[in-house]
Amino acid sequence: MFEGFQHYLSYGSTDQQTVRDLSEYFNGLLVPGTIAAFQAEGTKGFVLSLSARSAEPYVIDSRFPLFQNRLQRPKKSHQMLADLLGVPSLVSQFMTPDPNNFSDATIEQISSNWIDFNVGFETVQTKTFDKYAARLGEKVLPENRQDPLYILPPYTMVGSAADNWESVSQRIWDASQSYAKARSVDDKLRRVIAASSAIEWDRLASTSVEQEIVAWISNLDEFKLTSEAELVQYGQALTSAMGRGQRVFALYGGFFSVLLSRYGLTGSSHGIGFGEHRDWVELPSSGAPPARYYVPRLHRYVGVDIATTIWRQFPELVSCDCSECNNDSPSTLDYHSLMRHSVRVRNKEIAGWLDLPSAEVSHLLDRDYLAFRAAAQSLAAPANVAKKVEESCAHLAMWSRVIQTLG
Ligand SMILES: [Zn+2]
To answer: Are residues 179 and 97 in the same domain?
Structure first.
């Protein structure tokens, strides 16, 4: 996760087929704790058989900020994750959770249970392993299955220095380190630093002695024009971290995170079909992604109908030569092809953009922005469709400005 640019996929149980088909197009899997807790056997069978096939690394993210919310309608997966951590009362239905209520005993319980869960993750029933191994269509030996690459102890989303959640995060980290030492797995711990803004993240990272950090800035939407200042701050925070010798992997990131590699980011994870950013307040709601088409030159998903409209009149703007698309209309792709196409394109984006000089990056983004804007203005389509096309490209010019500012 901390060398070159590592492309991870956030695993959801609906994506098994895509993940199985495309293992040479990504570097590792990020398994949400909610899914690992709720669909424990199936997730294990799937992840472990894959790890045995190609030594595909994976890590499990605790999704702990979920428990900083009042969960009015908790899902079964939320309760099962809390149970796994040994503290069922983490699911707070009637009150907003209070950081001051985390006793030392609770902190220790959460920390040790999470480490035990990670260490024991490779224990799976033979029949479960065999069932998932058979779906891979090749011989996979159970003894080749892997432990999680790293253990990411639970962490909290920190809003500000005045926020008592920072100390909860610190105490979980400290307790995890002592427990991991006792179990001789302390070299596997990597810290997640989660903050509600890039400036806050910068402050937390600058006080951390850890050299390899996983980052999450809540709700940083790389497509929103209002994110411009924060994307600059994110780039600056990464540059500072790199200056301190820290290597940083992003828990959530779209194409813009690939561009951030030039300021030190060593990789990012994205959901298949969605998941470029995540707001911790929205963590409780998740589900299967809608069927949308990832437009390579926009580096974003748009509705299949919109993509098809553009393709008919300006095929060069949306067509893709990957083996799912073959330059054909986006409307010909079924759900899984849409998903596979998006993973293939990200793989190609990483190969094509990672080493470009910043001036070239800005130039290409501006070029594509102008091409889409011109197409929107001459598109034979209802006004609302043309407006959507025009709006869908505005982030390209914004990204170009961010890269120019960061240099
Ligand atoms: Zn394609």
So the answer is: yes
How close is the Cα of 157 to the center of ligand 1, in Å? 36
Q: What pLDDT digit, counting tens, does each position of 91-123 carry?
A: 999 999 999 999 999 999 999 999 999 999 999
Identify whether 287 is part of a domain: no
Phi-psi region of 270 (alpha: psi -120 to 50; beta: other; left: phi over 0): beta
Q: Final residue of a domain: which of 244, 263, 282?
A: 282
| Residue burial 226-240, b: 16+ Cβ < 10 Å; e: rest | ebeebbbbbbbbbbe
Ligand 1: distance of its center to the CA of 10 in Å? 20
Report how far ligand 1's centroid is from the alpha carbon of 330 (Å): 8
Nearest to 59 by CA among 128, 5, 123, 11: 11
Q: How far is the CA of 8 from the centre of ligand 1 (A)?
A: 19
Show which of 238, 262, 282 is a domain's final residue. Answer: 282
CATH number of 55's domain:
3.20.20
- Distance, CA 15 to ligand 1 centroid (Å)? 17
* CA 218–ligand 1 middle distance (angstroms): 30
**Tens digit of each residue's pLDDT (9 = 90 or more) over 184-238:** 999 999 999 999 999 999 999 999 999 999 999 998 999 999 999 999 999 999 9
Q: Is residue 1 part of a domain?
A: no
Predicted confidence (pLDDT) per residue in 49-106, tens digit: 989 987 789 999 999 999 999 999 999 999 999 999 999 999 999 999 999 999 999 9
